[in-house]
Protein backbone atom coordinates (compact mmCIF):
# COMPACT_ATOMS: atom_id res chain seq x y z
CA UNK A 1 0.00 0.00 0.00
CA UNK A 2 2.82 2.40 0.84
CA UNK A 3 5.33 1.22 -1.74
CA UNK A 4 5.80 4.59 -3.37
CA UNK A 5 6.56 6.53 -0.27
CA UNK A 6 8.44 3.60 1.24
CA UNK A 7 10.61 3.37 -1.85
CA UNK A 8 11.37 7.03 -1.74
CA UNK A 9 12.21 6.87 1.92
CA UNK A 10 14.31 3.79 1.28
CA UNK A 11 16.44 5.96 -0.98
CA UNK A 12 16.84 8.57 1.73
CA UNK A 13 17.77 6.05 4.38
CA UNK A 14 20.24 4.21 2.19
CA UNK A 15 22.42 7.23 2.68
CA UNK A 16 21.80 7.37 6.39
CA UNK A 17 22.20 3.93 7.79
CA UNK A 18 22.24 4.35 11.51
CA UNK A 19 20.70 1.79 13.75
CA UNK A 20 19.07 2.40 17.12
CA UNK A 21 16.95 5.51 16.97
CA UNK A 22 15.86 7.92 14.27
CA UNK A 23 18.07 11.00 14.43
CA UNK A 24 16.81 14.51 13.75
CA UNK A 25 18.63 14.55 10.38
CA UNK A 26 17.18 11.20 9.35
CA UNK A 27 13.72 12.44 10.14
CA UNK A 28 14.15 15.78 8.40
CA UNK A 29 15.39 14.07 5.24
CA UNK A 30 12.51 11.61 5.32
CA UNK A 31 9.92 14.27 5.99
CA UNK A 32 10.99 16.20 2.93
CA UNK A 33 9.78 13.19 0.92
CA UNK A 34 6.61 12.92 2.96
CA UNK A 35 5.87 16.57 2.34
CA UNK A 36 6.18 16.06 -1.39
CA UNK A 37 3.89 13.04 -1.20
CA UNK A 38 1.27 15.08 0.68
CA UNK A 39 1.43 17.98 -1.76
CA UNK A 40 1.19 15.61 -4.69
CA UNK A 41 -1.94 14.18 -3.07
CA UNK A 42 -3.36 17.71 -3.09
CA UNK A 43 -3.13 18.33 0.64
CA UNK A 44 -3.09 22.09 1.16
CA UNK A 45 0.27 23.64 2.02
CA UNK A 46 -0.50 24.91 5.56
CA UNK A 47 -2.10 21.59 6.47
CA UNK A 48 0.87 19.66 5.07
CA UNK A 49 3.24 21.86 7.08
CA UNK A 50 1.37 21.36 10.34
CA UNK A 51 1.12 17.68 9.73
CA UNK A 52 4.85 17.37 9.09
CA UNK A 53 5.59 19.24 12.31
CA UNK A 54 3.51 16.80 14.33
CA UNK A 55 5.17 13.82 12.70
CA UNK A 56 8.58 15.33 13.25
CA UNK A 57 7.99 15.52 16.99
CA UNK A 58 6.74 11.93 17.10
CA UNK A 59 9.43 10.48 14.85
CA UNK A 60 12.53 12.14 16.23
CA UNK A 61 14.13 9.77 18.69
CA UNK A 62 11.63 7.01 18.00
CA UNK A 63 13.30 3.64 18.44
CA UNK A 64 13.79 1.73 15.22
CA UNK A 65 12.73 -1.85 15.75
CA UNK A 66 14.94 -4.50 14.21
CA UNK A 67 12.27 -5.97 11.98
CA UNK A 68 11.61 -2.84 9.94
CA UNK A 69 13.79 -0.32 8.16
CA UNK A 70 13.95 3.32 9.27
CA UNK A 71 12.00 4.20 6.12
CA UNK A 72 9.21 1.83 7.06
CA UNK A 73 9.26 3.21 10.58
CA UNK A 74 8.69 6.76 9.36
CA UNK A 75 5.97 5.59 6.98
CA UNK A 76 4.24 3.88 9.90
CA UNK A 77 4.38 7.03 12.04
CA UNK A 78 3.05 9.09 9.10
CA UNK A 79 0.32 6.54 8.46
CA UNK A 80 -0.80 6.46 12.11
CA UNK A 81 -0.87 10.24 12.28
CA UNK A 82 -2.89 10.41 9.06
CA UNK A 83 -5.46 8.00 10.47
CA UNK A 84 -5.63 9.93 13.75
CA UNK A 85 -6.22 13.20 11.87
CA UNK A 86 -8.74 11.78 9.42
CA UNK A 87 -10.77 9.83 11.91
CA UNK A 88 -12.99 11.64 14.38
CA UNK A 89 -14.59 10.29 17.53
CA UNK A 90 -17.95 9.83 15.94
CA UNK A 91 -19.18 6.97 13.76
CA UNK A 92 -19.20 8.69 10.34
CA UNK A 93 -22.08 6.65 8.93
CA UNK A 94 -24.44 7.36 11.80
CA UNK A 95 -26.30 10.62 11.32
CA UNK A 96 -27.98 12.26 14.30
CA UNK A 97 -31.49 11.92 13.05
CA UNK A 98 -33.55 10.69 16.00
CA UNK A 99 -36.84 12.41 16.89
CA UNK A 100 -38.69 12.42 13.60
CA UNK A 101 -39.04 14.29 11.40
CA UNK A 102 -35.34 15.22 11.38
CA UNK A 103 -34.30 17.97 8.98
CA UNK A 104 -31.00 17.46 7.14
CA UNK A 105 -29.61 20.40 5.19
CA UNK A 106 -27.49 19.64 2.14
CA UNK A 107 -25.20 22.55 1.25
CA UNK A 108 -22.39 23.18 -1.22
CA UNK A 109 -21.46 24.76 -4.51
CA UNK A 110 -23.23 24.08 -7.77
CA UNK A 111 -21.73 21.10 -9.53
CA UNK A 112 -20.29 19.60 -6.34
CA UNK A 113 -22.71 16.68 -6.60
CA UNK A 114 -25.21 17.95 -4.04
CA UNK A 115 -28.40 16.78 -5.71
CA UNK A 116 -26.96 13.39 -6.58
CA UNK A 117 -25.69 13.01 -3.01
CA UNK A 118 -29.10 13.96 -1.62
CA UNK A 119 -30.63 11.10 -3.59
CA UNK A 120 -27.82 8.73 -2.63
CA UNK A 121 -28.30 9.53 1.03
CA UNK A 122 -32.08 9.18 0.76
CA UNK A 123 -31.62 5.77 -0.80
CA UNK A 124 -29.19 4.67 1.85
CA UNK A 125 -31.41 5.81 4.72
CA UNK A 126 -34.41 4.10 3.14
CA UNK A 127 -32.76 0.82 2.21
CA UNK A 128 -30.28 0.33 5.02
CA UNK A 129 -32.03 1.98 7.93
CA UNK A 130 -35.66 1.57 6.93
CA UNK A 131 -36.33 5.29 7.28
CA UNK A 132 -39.21 7.06 5.63
CA UNK A 133 -37.54 9.89 3.74
CA UNK A 134 -38.81 13.03 2.05
CA UNK A 135 -36.60 15.09 -0.27
CA UNK A 136 -37.14 18.70 -1.30
CA UNK A 137 -35.20 20.90 -3.70
CA UNK A 138 -34.86 24.54 -2.65
CA UNK A 139 -33.13 25.60 -5.85
CA UNK A 140 -35.69 28.18 -6.96
CA UNK A 141 -33.30 29.63 -9.54
CA UNK A 142 -32.88 26.40 -11.43
CA UNK A 143 -36.10 24.59 -12.25
CA UNK A 144 -33.97 21.89 -13.90
CA UNK A 145 -32.37 21.09 -10.55
CA UNK A 146 -35.79 20.66 -8.97
CA UNK A 147 -36.82 18.35 -11.79
CA UNK A 148 -33.58 16.41 -11.42
CA UNK A 149 -34.32 15.65 -7.77
CA UNK A 150 -37.90 14.62 -8.61
CA UNK A 151 -36.61 12.24 -11.32
CA UNK A 152 -34.06 10.73 -8.96
CA UNK A 153 -36.79 10.35 -6.33
CA UNK A 154 -38.94 8.38 -8.75
CA UNK A 155 -35.97 6.19 -9.70
CA UNK A 156 -35.16 5.26 -6.12
CA UNK A 157 -38.72 5.20 -4.83
CA UNK A 158 -38.30 8.10 -2.41
CA UNK A 159 -40.91 10.85 -2.11
CA UNK A 160 -40.09 14.40 -3.16
CA UNK A 161 -42.02 17.45 -2.11
CA UNK A 162 -44.31 18.54 -4.96
CA UNK A 163 -42.91 21.56 -6.82
CA UNK A 164 -44.91 24.77 -6.37
CA UNK A 165 -43.81 27.62 -8.65
CA UNK A 166 -43.03 31.01 -7.15
CA UNK A 167 -42.15 29.91 -3.61
CA UNK A 168 -38.98 31.09 -1.86
CA UNK A 169 -36.44 28.64 -0.47
CA UNK A 170 -37.67 29.32 3.07
CA UNK A 171 -41.28 28.73 2.05
CA UNK A 172 -40.34 25.42 0.48
CA UNK A 173 -38.38 24.42 3.59
CA UNK A 174 -41.37 25.19 5.80
CA UNK A 175 -43.69 23.25 3.53
CA UNK A 176 -41.27 20.31 3.63
CA UNK A 177 -41.30 20.44 7.42
CA UNK A 178 -45.08 20.49 7.48
CA UNK A 179 -45.38 17.65 5.00
CA UNK A 180 -42.75 15.61 6.85
CA UNK A 181 -44.64 16.07 10.11
CA UNK A 182 -48.08 15.32 8.69
CA UNK A 183 -46.84 12.47 6.52
CA UNK A 184 -45.00 10.68 9.33
CA UNK A 185 -41.56 10.93 7.72
CA UNK A 186 -38.45 10.13 9.74
CA UNK A 187 -36.16 12.46 7.84
CA UNK A 188 -36.47 15.25 5.32
CA UNK A 189 -33.50 16.21 3.18
CA UNK A 190 -33.33 19.79 1.94
CA UNK A 191 -31.24 20.18 -1.20
CA UNK A 192 -30.29 23.87 -1.04
CA UNK A 193 -29.39 25.98 -4.06
CA UNK A 194 -25.74 26.06 -5.04
CA UNK A 195 -23.85 28.81 -6.80
CA UNK A 196 -20.72 28.58 -8.88
CA UNK A 197 -18.89 30.57 -6.24
CA UNK A 198 -19.64 31.49 -2.69
CA UNK A 199 -21.56 34.73 -2.50
CA UNK A 200 -23.56 36.58 0.11
CA UNK A 201 -26.93 35.96 -1.46
CA UNK A 202 -26.30 32.24 -1.29
CA UNK A 203 -25.13 32.35 2.31
CA UNK A 204 -28.04 34.57 3.39
CA UNK A 205 -30.47 32.15 1.84
CA UNK A 206 -28.91 29.09 3.44
CA UNK A 207 -28.88 30.88 6.80
CA UNK A 208 -32.56 31.78 6.46
CA UNK A 209 -33.42 28.16 5.64
CA UNK A 210 -31.33 26.94 8.54
CA UNK A 211 -33.13 29.30 10.92
CA UNK A 212 -36.51 28.19 9.59
CA UNK A 213 -36.01 24.46 10.22
CA UNK A 214 -33.09 24.12 12.70
CA UNK A 215 -31.41 21.18 10.93
CA UNK A 216 -30.22 18.20 12.92
CA UNK A 217 -27.40 17.73 10.42
CA UNK A 218 -25.92 20.16 7.90
CA UNK A 219 -23.88 18.20 5.40
CA UNK A 220 -21.45 20.02 3.17
CA UNK A 221 -21.00 18.36 -0.21
CA UNK A 222 -17.63 19.09 -1.82
CA UNK A 223 -15.85 17.82 -4.88
CA UNK A 224 -13.00 15.68 -3.57
CA UNK A 225 -10.92 16.43 -6.64
CA UNK A 226 -10.70 20.15 -5.99
CA UNK A 227 -8.11 20.19 -3.20
CA UNK A 228 -7.49 23.67 -1.87
CA UNK A 229 -10.72 25.05 -3.32
CA UNK A 230 -12.67 22.47 -1.37
CA UNK A 231 -10.99 23.67 1.81
CA UNK A 232 -11.87 27.31 1.11
CA UNK A 233 -15.47 26.34 0.48
CA UNK A 234 -15.58 24.34 3.71
CA UNK A 235 -14.13 27.22 5.72
CA UNK A 236 -16.74 29.63 4.36
CA UNK A 237 -19.67 27.33 4.96
CA UNK A 238 -18.47 26.45 8.43
CA UNK A 239 -18.17 30.13 9.37
CA UNK A 240 -21.42 31.32 7.86
CA UNK A 241 -23.77 28.39 8.23
CA UNK A 242 -22.16 25.84 10.52
CA UNK A 243 -21.55 22.35 9.21
CA UNK A 244 -21.95 19.05 11.06
CA UNK A 245 -20.31 16.83 8.49
CA UNK A 246 -18.74 16.63 5.05
CA UNK A 247 -19.41 14.44 2.02
CA UNK A 248 -16.54 14.18 -0.47
CA UNK A 249 -17.73 13.39 -3.97
CA UNK A 250 -15.86 12.09 -7.04
CA UNK A 251 -13.60 9.92 -4.92
CA UNK A 252 -13.90 7.41 -7.76
CA UNK A 253 -11.75 9.80 -9.80
CA UNK A 254 -8.00 9.58 -9.88
CA UNK A 255 -7.39 12.27 -7.29
CA UNK A 256 -5.33 11.15 -4.33
CA UNK A 257 -7.78 12.32 -1.71
CA UNK A 258 -5.66 14.98 -0.02
CA UNK A 259 -8.74 17.20 0.26
CA UNK A 260 -9.97 14.82 2.95
CA UNK A 261 -7.01 15.57 5.18
CA UNK A 262 -7.11 19.32 4.55
CA UNK A 263 -10.83 19.41 5.17
CA UNK A 264 -10.63 17.54 8.42
CA UNK A 265 -7.66 19.55 9.68
CA UNK A 266 -9.14 22.94 8.79
CA UNK A 267 -12.79 22.49 9.78
CA UNK A 268 -12.45 19.81 12.43
CA UNK A 269 -15.69 18.35 11.09
CA UNK A 270 -16.10 14.66 10.39
CA UNK A 271 -16.07 13.37 6.84
CA UNK A 272 -19.10 11.15 6.84
CA UNK A 273 -19.45 9.76 3.35
CA UNK A 274 -17.63 9.55 0.05
CA UNK A 275 -19.24 9.56 -3.36
CA UNK A 276 -17.81 6.90 -5.65
CA UNK A 277 -19.75 7.37 -8.87
CA UNK A 278 -22.80 8.86 -10.53
CA UNK A 279 -25.26 6.12 -9.62
CA UNK A 280 -27.51 6.47 -6.59
CA UNK A 281 -25.91 3.51 -4.82
CA UNK A 282 -22.38 4.92 -5.13
CA UNK A 283 -22.11 6.34 -1.61
CA UNK A 284 -19.95 4.79 1.08
CA UNK A 285 -19.20 5.52 4.69
CA UNK A 286 -15.89 7.33 5.01
CA UNK A 287 -12.99 5.06 5.94
CA UNK A 288 -9.85 6.74 7.23
CA UNK A 289 -7.62 3.76 6.37
CA UNK A 290 -8.58 3.75 2.72
CA UNK A 291 -8.00 7.45 2.27
CA UNK A 292 -4.73 7.38 4.21
CA UNK A 293 -3.44 4.67 1.86
CA UNK A 294 -4.41 6.76 -1.11
CA UNK A 295 -2.74 9.89 0.17
CA UNK A 296 0.51 8.07 0.80
CA UNK A 297 0.30 6.56 -2.69
P1 LIG B 1 -25.09 19.80 -7.89
O1 LIG B 1 -25.10 20.94 -8.86
O2 LIG B 1 -24.14 20.05 -6.77
O3 LIG B 1 -26.44 19.40 -7.41
O4 LIG B 1 -24.44 18.58 -8.66
P2 LIG B 1 -25.12 17.27 -9.29
O5 LIG B 1 -25.65 16.37 -8.23
O6 LIG B 1 -26.05 17.67 -10.36
O7 LIG B 1 -23.82 16.56 -9.89
C1 LIG B 1 -23.04 17.12 -10.91
C2 LIG B 1 -22.43 16.00 -11.74
O8 LIG B 1 -21.51 15.25 -10.95
C3 LIG B 1 -23.46 14.99 -12.24
O9 LIG B 1 -23.11 14.62 -13.55
C4 LIG B 1 -23.29 13.82 -11.29
O10 LIG B 1 -23.67 12.59 -11.86
C5 LIG B 1 -21.82 13.86 -10.98
N1 LIG B 1 -21.47 13.26 -9.68
C6 LIG B 1 -21.99 13.51 -8.46
N2 LIG B 1 -21.38 12.78 -7.51
C7 LIG B 1 -20.42 12.04 -8.14
C8 LIG B 1 -19.42 11.09 -7.69
O11 LIG B 1 -19.28 10.76 -6.50
N3 LIG B 1 -18.62 10.57 -8.65
C9 LIG B 1 -18.74 10.91 -9.98
N4 LIG B 1 -17.91 10.34 -10.84
N5 LIG B 1 -19.63 11.80 -10.42
C10 LIG B 1 -20.48 12.36 -9.52
Automatic annotation (TrEMBL):
Query: A Gene Ontology MF term for this entry?
Result: GTPase activity
Q: Which reaction does it catalyse?
A: GTP + H2O = GDP + phosphate + H(+)
The record describes its quaternary structure and partners as: Part of the signal recognition particle protein translocation system, which is composed of SRP and FtsY. SRP is a ribonucleoprotein composed of Ffh and a 4.5S RNA molecule.
Class of the enzyme per the UniProt entry, highest EC level? hydrolase
Choose any GO biological process term that the UniProt entry carries and state it: SRP-dependent cotranslational protein targeting to membrane
GO CC terms: plasma membrane; signal recognition particle
Q: What is this protein called?
A: Signal recognition particle protein
Q: What coarse category fits the chief subcellular location reported for this protein?
A: membrane
About its domains, the entry says:
Composed of three domains: the N-terminal N domain, which is responsible for interactions with the ribosome, the central G domain, which binds GTP, and the C-terminal M domain, which binds the RNA and the signal sequence of the RNC.
Per UniProt, the keywords (alphabetical) are: Cytoplasm, GTP-binding, Hydrolase, Nucleotide-binding, Ribonucleoprotein, RNA-binding, Signal recognition particle
Q: What is its EC number?
A: 3.6.5.4
- In the UniProt record, the gene name given for this protein reads ffh
Localization, per the record, is: Cell inner membrane; Cytoplasm
Q: How does it sit in the membrane?
A: Peripheral membrane protein
Coiled coil among the record's keywords?
no
Task: List, for all copies, the residue spans of the domain called SRP54-type proteins GTP-binding.
Answer: 270-283
Binding sites annotated in the UniProt record for GTP: 108-115, 191-195, 249-252
Q: Provide the family line.
A: Belongs to the GTP-binding SRP family. SRP54 subfamily.
Tell me where on the tree of life, at the top rank, the source sits: Bacteria
What role is this protein assigned? Involved in targeting and insertion of nascent membrane proteins into the cytoplasmic membrane. Binds to the hydrophobic signal sequence of the ribosome-nascent chain (RNC) as it emerges from the ribosomes. The SRP-RNC complex is then targeted to the cytoplasmic membrane where it interacts with the SRP receptor FtsY. Interaction with FtsY leads to the transfer of the RNC complex to the Sec translocase for insertion into the membrane, the hydrolysis of GTP by both Ffh and FtsY, and the dissociation of the SRP-FtsY complex into the individual components.
Its source organism is: Pararhodobacter oceanensis
Amino acid sequence: MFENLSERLGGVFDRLTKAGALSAEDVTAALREVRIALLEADVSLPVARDFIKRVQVKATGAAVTKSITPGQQVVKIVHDELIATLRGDEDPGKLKIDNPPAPVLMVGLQGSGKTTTTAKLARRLTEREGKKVLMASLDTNRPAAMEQLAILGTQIGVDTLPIVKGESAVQIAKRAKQQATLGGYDVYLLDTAGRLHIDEVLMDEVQAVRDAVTPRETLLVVDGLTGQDAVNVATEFEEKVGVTGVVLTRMDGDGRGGAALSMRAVTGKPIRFVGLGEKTDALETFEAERVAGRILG
